[in-house]
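Re: beginner question about structure tokens

> Can someone show what the tokenized structure looks like for a real chain? I only ever see the sequence side.

Sure, here's an example I had lying around. Input first:
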Amino acid sequence: MNADQDPLELTRGLLNQGATVRHGFLDVLGEATSSPAPTFAQRAMNSSFVATVYERLWRPTSFYLASGVTTGAEQRRAAQALHVSSATRLLDVACGPGNFTAPLARQLPAGGLAVGFDISEAMLTRAVQDNSGPQTCYVRGDARQLPFRDETFDAVCCFGALYLMPEPFRIAHEMVRVLQPGGRIAILTSYSGQVPPIRHALTATAALIGVTMFDQDSFVDLFASAGLVDVEQQTQRVLQFVTAAKPD
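And the corresponding structure tokens:
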């Protein structure tokens, strides 16, 4: 990417369908709403209030309690797992207000591009306001059908969202589809590997607000069955971090 290239136009060239520019991001959905009625958790993630406080208050506090890992440590782990320093195209699925998209974009080499993808207009509006840059662009769409061609990105991630989304395994397969051979994938999601009394209580509570708890094997097995290699998993409290690579 040359210094004078517009990230919006560069990203438009990666899409497999048309998009309009709204509030500074590309939108492939427009007014279309095909998702099921949102859960409490999904409504929260689509609210302007949560979008405003998410990056500085909501996420750092809730994720530290859930894992014992600080946001800074999460971002460093993500950059290392995704080999960001040598990546050229990065896709951050369910990027929210861009709290990972922008830091990862700053670590890309010259000419790299980080695309933040989300379905929430409120989150993306906040991302454009707070986390834009010469190597970032944001796209609104449905992750169950990512609007990108096969093998478009050499780094693909989703941090702290799959447990909120309908059809999370379909979304994970879509992430694998758009990953280039030799590329890296990383997810952070829920983990239900605690002893039975705690696991049952967590799962029941999570279900009330619309959060899915995934077991230890769900995404490890999914990545392996999709042909990915070097699958690794870290678990901390109620979260798991899973990484893998697509063979060359």
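Each token stands for a local structural state, so reading them left to right follows the chain. The longest strand covers residues 179-190.
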